[in-house]
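This section describes the prediction task in plain terms. A model, or a person checking by hand, is given the sequence of a single protein chain and must write out its three-dimensional structure as a string of tokens. No templates, partner chains or ligands are provided. The sample shown here is typical of the held-out split.
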Amino acid sequence: MTPARERIMDAAEELIAAGHVPPTLDAVAQAARVSKGGLLYHFDKQSLLQALILRAVRRFDERLAAAADHRTVAATWLRLSAPGPHERELYRAMLSMLRLTSSGELDLPGEVGEAENRWQSMLATELGDPLRARLVRLAGDGLFLAALTGQPATADDVEQLIGHLGLPDAAHGPLPS
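The expected answer:
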């Protein structure tokens, strides 16, 4: 990816995190220190928002792939689902951006559904039980929603949940069920 393209995406992400959902192309261009024409060379509004979503999916994929190498996908899933204070604003902004899909202003890329299936498969492979994998995924979804609505789980809460579920954990090895 070109440096200008990355700078544009970083600027848009920062604007979204600051509550500008969706950000205007003029604001993104100014924040990225590129001309509007330079921004439009890389993105229109729809493709910029989709690129941000796909970048978030790619980042999540990278974290889960690394966890798969250590057989800690489930524990990592739960930890990623409870964002810390510094990540919470960005997660809220992403949720606001996703709300645009229901209004028809943004078409969610098909890759998002593919990623959800991939993540579910990774959980099922690690846990050896599709139902248990679905329960872990849904618990993570609940942690994520709680963080977005202002009642985030603490890191200790998440670690207790991981322990209670008997999930493999790189720091502590497999936990008893």
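For orientation: The CA atoms of residues 47 and 86 lie 26 Å apart.
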